[in-house]
Amino acid sequence: MKYIDNSACRINIQDGKMSCVEELLMFPFSNVLSGRMICVAQTLKEHRDMQCMLRAVSLLSESDEEWVIQRNVLGKPEVWQCGAKCSHLLVSNTHDGGMHIAAAYRSTSAVGLGIDAVWLPRLRQRGKEKRYLLKLAARIAAPREFMHLEEKAACESTEQFRQRVAAHFSLKESVSKALGTGLKLGIGYGFSESISPRQIEVIDKGLDIRLPAERGIQQCELLGQVICWNGFMVSAVVWGTSLLCENQPGNNVS
What pLDDT is recorded for position 206? Predict the structure, then answer.
């Protein structure tokens, strides 16, 4: 699995009482998508996920129009304007390790967008070595996926395997957000519609993603990618049809 060491553009923002550092993250697979995607990361002292998502949407739309972010009954954020849902504008967000990260995607061919981040220092705490990481992998990985992870654990360093497990978990979170269901991680977590992480199989080569046949979305493309950025493993997933630009190679976006 290849992780891209992402270098981002840093911007200092002063907005009244709000002061933060903003960076624009680049996912290389956005270069072959039929639409346009932008990802914004902000360091903030307070919980401002809506503001971060609005910032991503405004940068993507390159306009000062008034956008509204609303969450549906499953908690999925949606973009609205003048009382109407903007189906061509998708948004997703995550927060961990003192960062808020939001992504926006503009396309008529996509129906779902998901983004997630795992703060690696949390997985570097004492006691979270390979044995712990393997137990975590067993809880979240599909059977064939776990067999592959066991093989990697035997030949990789602890840090390499830590990043691998973090990437798999982050991708599963992003897939569930793109589908609009969220992950079911245990009793009291998720909705009845939520999907188990073990129902999402992350295939190492090309970061392909497979879902159970009963989900009925195999006719759609599900494109995912992971970047290693600033102590985070950040993943993005786009779900839809005809996502790749014409005359581009296949959807291996590793």
Answer: 45
Nearest alpha-carbon partner for 25 in 100, 85, 112, 106? 100
Contacts of 115 (CB under 8 A, 6+ apart): 39, 92, 93, 94, 101, 102, 103, 174, 177, 234, 235, 236, 237
Fold that domain 8-240 belongs to in CATH: Ribosomal Protein L22; Chain A (3.90.470)
pLDDT tens sequence across 207-219: 567 776 555 555 5
Tokens for 62, please give them: 């390159």
Calculate mean pLDDT across residues 174-182: 90
What is the C-alpha to C-alpha distance for residues 67 and 217, in angstroms, rounded to an integer?
30
More confident residue, 122 or 192: 122
Cα separation of 138 and 145, whole Å?
Answer: 9
Say what angle helices 143-155 and 130-140 make with each other, to 10 degrees: 160
* Residues 90, 141: Cα–Cα separation, whole Å: 28
Read off the pTM. 0.84
Q: CA 92 to CA 102: how far, in whole Å? A: 6
Tell me the pLDDT of the chain averaged across its residues: 81
DSSP state of 187: T
